Amino acid sequence: MKTWATRLLLAFVFITLGFAWGKQSARKEMTSGTAGKTAPLVTGEKLLVYSAHMTFRCHECTEIERLTRVLIEEQFADLLAEGRITFQSIDYQKHPEFARKHEVFSSTVVLVEYRDGVEVGFDRLDDVWTLSRDVEKFNAYVEEALRARLSSGGSGS
User: What is the model's pTM?
Assistant: First the structure.
């Protein structure tokens, strides 16, 4: 009984230290001057699809990113090849300005629309969390949001 309690306490300590190290690394990155350099040069109309995640990533976070990437590569290959859609993974803890601007507080997918280099709107797809274990529903949700943003200039923020 004593050894199990010791193991549990040690596991708790290591997990706590891991989270503390992740937060400290994010703070160092934010103060080093490299944070904030997330917006690419954009000309014409373009849709950037961000997989926003924390520094410490769980299985669900990586699965959301994988599902989103596969969907874009399969359903929007032509727009991807033309450069009209771009996919990017971003650690929102290392880029707090991105998190503030797009109201990101947990791992999610963010669609950011640009026209002539200016961000004109975004959609945050928070339901990816609840749908990530049902690939069909996940794909329908993300694809619908992408098509809406592409066809009408979006209806989000």
Answer: 0.69
